[in-house]
Amino acid sequence: MSADKVYTWLEIAEHVTEESCWIVQEGKVFDVTEYLETHPGTKFPLLKYAGEECYEQFVRCNHSEEARKLRDTFQIGVVEANPPTAEYWLAVRHAKWERLRFTPEQVAQHNKQGDQWVMMDGYVYDLSTLQHPGGQEVIDKFAGKDATQKFHAVEKHLPNAIENRQKYRIGNVNAPQQKKSGCINCKWAIIGAAGVLGALIAGTVIYKKTRK
């Protein structure tokens, strides 16, 4: 792809998954899909800002000159001159909410100040930059954990807080599901055991009758 190709924000918003991950920095568009698995900071920071401008975060991490040169090898074009629209933000957020999934174990890794994720109602929120009215200790306490019960236990959170927290939502909780086959096997095992027990009882009764 030509590094001069111009992409709209809506086009960029379509590339927010592990299958196709684009980021924007300094007006340039980078396709970092093939770099996800080898990124020193894991793939999650890249997926977190997929489809978005993230140069500020790049600088904050004090990337080396070598890292900048490596980043430049992934450039595929530039972003349009127009600023992101409300339609773009809706598109990119919706795409991430629907597609990005994190296990509780992955969320648990983000439990330090500056990198704090929290699970609530089956969704994952990045609260690293949230100025919580109750103080930073509230975020520190639940960073990397599920705060659903605590959130709903505080009456002040409803209903405005539920709406306001959406801006921090980055994906869904991909909790492991129980295998139905195991339950089915247990069911048939119980039925089978009951059948065997019934046969033994019936056999015992018949045996006693024949002995009389």
From TrEMBL:
One of its GO terms (cellular component) is membrane. The keyword Lyase does not apply. The keyword Protein transport does not apply. SUPFAM superfamilies: Cytochrome b5-like heme/steroid binding domain (SSF55856). Residues 4-80, 99-174 form the Cytochrome b5 heme-binding domain. It comes from the Eukaryota. Pfam families: Cyt-b5. The chain crosses the membrane at residues 188-207. InterPro entries: Cyt_B5-like_heme/steroid-bd (IPR001199), Cyt_B5-like_heme/steroid_sf (IPR036400), Cytochrome_b5 (IPR050668). GO terms for molecular function: heme binding; metal ion binding. Keywords: Heme, Iron, Membrane, Metal-binding, Transmembrane, Transmembrane helix. Belongs to the cytochrome b5 family. This is Cytochrome b5-like heme/steroid binding domain. It comes from Pseudocohnilembus persalinus.
